[in-house]
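Progress note, sequence design subtask.
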């Protein structure tokens, strides 16, 4: 385009995702505890959009950027002083609530009205950017509503990167996961997060930051767990998950110290438990795995998260080993760093596997009613006279009788006869296998602890100015 683009970026401020965010109920509706006192940052989704706008404007002469931001004016000014040092734009502040509980329609109407009132804005050259979702809400609808109010028919949702074509048009692309993380890192830098990303050599630090952001802008935990509990029964996901199990087995054969073997066994236990719960009922005949029974689906989703997080950590450590030699920040002393990260992977895999084993055991056995000392319970116990008569035929059988009813009707002092594991023999075999797979994990923890004790911190830290 000969005269450049007029780019309007819609973005609000949100509480710093590294802070503890506690929802509360107020007279005016839901809010965050001490929200006005929490430090604010530019919404990560909007930061990504602003980064893309700045990149596009730098390539097309005559382009101009406006940032339309909704929020308390005092906080807007404080945050924008930092952002303006990195991207050139004209701020159009809208003094209103930036709460994540605000209605999407009302917010869209306010944004559209503000954009229409920008002096000198050429609608024929207009491009509207913004976060597809937000760190304070997961509706994913606000920007679409803004476009409809501005009568913008060409909308591209969930875009990762824009580029200009020879005819002046703009194309969009969806990047792969690694590129998406690079873009998110740039967005984090717009929020002033250099200390988090640049101080973590390799790739694990970036993933940690992304995880903190995901925990904030993906919505309440209950929503995330419900979405996951629905998705994880999809045949496509289960096929992918089985491929991940095989992947961990392959890594374990080549890099046994990563804990991948332990993790693969725990992943197999999770698969068995999911299948069992989908075809089982509780003691009262109720279906176990169903959307309304979140006491079953949510813990199993949590167990899945333990597994996938540990898997990603292992893959990151291998990526560090593969790409580290070409990165001057970690090339020196890479062998020691890789060994340290490998030990951490082993420790975390063991921790995750233990949690998965506990959760799965509770779900497999926890919905069975424990036998009691009643008529039904007695039927599964040996009578003392029975054992005495069998002793002459099978010597020593008396020592195998766990629950024996004496001649006077007395029984061992406990809650009831031992519960049976009918149908769960394979689960118990997996538990036993997993227990032995934990071999060596404490040695890895000791090595990691020793490595930390010898860590040297330079006197002059190389933080960016």
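Output:
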């Amino acid at each position: 385009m000969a005269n450049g683009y007029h780019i309007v970026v819609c973005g609000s401020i949100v509480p710093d995702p590294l802070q503890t965010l506690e929802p509360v109920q107020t007279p005016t509706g839901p809010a965050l505890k001490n929200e006005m006192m929490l430090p604010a940052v530019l919404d990560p989704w909007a930061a990504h959009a602003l980064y893309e706008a700045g990149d596009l404007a730098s390539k097309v002469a005559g382009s101009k950027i406006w940032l339309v931001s909704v929020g308390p004016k005092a906080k807007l000014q404080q945050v924008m002083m930092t952002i303006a040092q990195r991207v050139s734009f004209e701020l159009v502040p809208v003094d209103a609530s930036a709460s994540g509980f605000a209605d999407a329609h009302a917010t869209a109407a306010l944004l559209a009205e503000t954009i229409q009132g920008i002096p000198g804005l050429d609608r024929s050259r207009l491009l509207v950017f913004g976060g597809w979702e937000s760190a304070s809400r997961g509706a994913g609808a606000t920007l679409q509503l803004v476009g409809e109010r501005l009568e913008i028919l060409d909308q591209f949702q969930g875009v990762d990167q824009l580029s200009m074509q020879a005819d002046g048009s703009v194309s969009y692309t969806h990047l792969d996961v690694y590129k998406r993380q690079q873009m998110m890192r740039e967005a984090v830098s717009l929020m002033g997060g250099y200390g988090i990303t640049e101080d973590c050599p390799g790739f694990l630090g970036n993933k940690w930051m992304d995880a903190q952001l995901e925990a904030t802008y993906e919505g309440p935990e209950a929503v995330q767990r419900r979405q996951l509990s629905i998705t994880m029964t999809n045949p496509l996901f289960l096929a992918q998950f089985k491929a991940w199990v095989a992947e961990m087995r392959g890594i374990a054969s080549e890099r046994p110290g990563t804990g991948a073997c332990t993790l693969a066994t725990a992943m197999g236990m999770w698969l068995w438990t999911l299948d069992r719960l989908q075809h089982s009922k509780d003691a009262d005949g109720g279906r176990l795995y169903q959307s309304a029974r979140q006491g079953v689906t949510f813990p199993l989703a949590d167990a899945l998260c333990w597994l996938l997080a540990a898997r990603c950590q292992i893959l990151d450590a291998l990526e560090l080993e593969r790409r580290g030699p070409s990165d001057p920040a970690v090339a020196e002393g890479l062998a020691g760093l890789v060994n340290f990260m490998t030990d951490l992977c082993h420790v975390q895999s063991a921790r995750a596997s233990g949690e998965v084993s506990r959760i799965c055991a509770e779900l497999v056995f926890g919905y069975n009613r424990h036998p009691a000392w009643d008529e039904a319970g007695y039927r599964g116990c040996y009578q003392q006279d029975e054992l005495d008569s069998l002793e002459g035929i099978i010597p020593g059988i008396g020592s195998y009788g766990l629950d024996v009813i004496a001649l006077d009707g007395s029984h061992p002092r406990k809650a009831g006869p031992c519960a049976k594991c009918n149908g769960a023999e394979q689960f118990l075999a997996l538990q036993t296998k997993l227990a032995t797979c934990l071999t060596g994990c404490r040695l890895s923890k000791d090595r990691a602890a020793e490595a930390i004790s010898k860590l040297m911190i330079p006197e002059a830290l190389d933080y960016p100015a």
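Confidence is low (pLDDT under 50) at residues 174-205. Work on this subtask will continue into the next period as scheduled.
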